[in-house]
């Protein structure tokens, strides 16, 4: 493993940081989250057209840049520093890889170039609040999380030579604004139960999307209601029934874990920087707060934790780019890196609130954006102890220890 970054990777980070510094400060972030889309559409267009961000890890044959997960993770580390609200995670990290892995030739040819250009945004909709389970991060995703043939979840049935969906999905990232939904639905009833993926286009009859109030406004979520909605099966009709949907979702989960870990590291690093800047300026008893030994020790502990999380996130991104770990025999580095990064972000944000003193406890203060991101991400993709427990279970750690 070569741990040094290439000139191209350094350029991606530098360019993206410059753009976000100019156009995505805390005030701009707060304004963008309150728009109908939930993000700055002009900034998204600039990131798509100038940097090719949504197509960074998409193959060149589909209009992408052709880079790997490593470059995407580095880009997300920079977007995490600014807490930039955008459909990047939902579109490029969750939905696009599923289209690439399971889509038919015509589906890939039609949709992936539009995603790579930034024209088309997409979202992954899974039933209930089971995104982390569906991605195989906190539990086995080969169970009945998609509905299990019972009432609830999302059900699919054949009708008039096509497919119809009915049911509901909660906590769909960017689901209120995405022009394409990739919906996981249960089909076959009790006799031949299986989970398949379907495409639902914007404006489909019977599709009701409601933006939900979320703790972290930089990650807008929606409730998706499917009232007998026409859908298109993802993949060829014959091959789709034999496709390993759970395996594809778990593979996307490993990649997403590495990317989200890098994003969390970027956020933790930036909130730590802000805290250090503040304690250098804030005076108490005639001297800077940062000169007190207890404050130095607290910040030093946070620094070590953030750097350790950064190393884990980089390794996870490299492992995902090198093919990942799908045999379940080795450590699941994506989940472990994500757990470490979320823990580091939570610690850095909590210390920021504490060390900013009275102003830090003001809900409207900028450091609370990072505190909300830390709490929101753990609710969506964690909690940390379940990430670690499932990774240990998949790697056979408890069996080797005789537990």
TrEMBL record:
Domain of life, per lineage: Bacteria
Residues covered by the Acyl-CoA dehydrogenase/oxidase N-terminal domain: 6-119
Enzyme Commission (EC) number: 1.3.99.-
InterPro entries tied to this protein: Acyl-CoA_Oxase/DH_mid-dom_sf, AcylCo_DH-like_C, AcylCo_DH/oxidase_C, AcylCoA_DH/ox_N, AcylCoA_DH/ox_N_sf, AcylCoA_DH/oxidase_NM_dom_sf
Requisite cofactors: FAD
Residues in Acyl-CoA dehydrogenase/oxidase C-terminal domain copies: 258-394
Gene3D superfamilies in the record: Acyl-CoA dehydrogenase/oxidase, N-terminal domain, Butyryl-CoA Dehydrogenase, subunit A, domain 2, Butyryl-CoA Dehydrogenase, subunit A, domain 3
MF terms (GO), sorted A to Z: acyl-CoA dehydrogenase activity; flavin adenine dinucleotide binding
Protein name: Acyl-CoA dehydrogenase
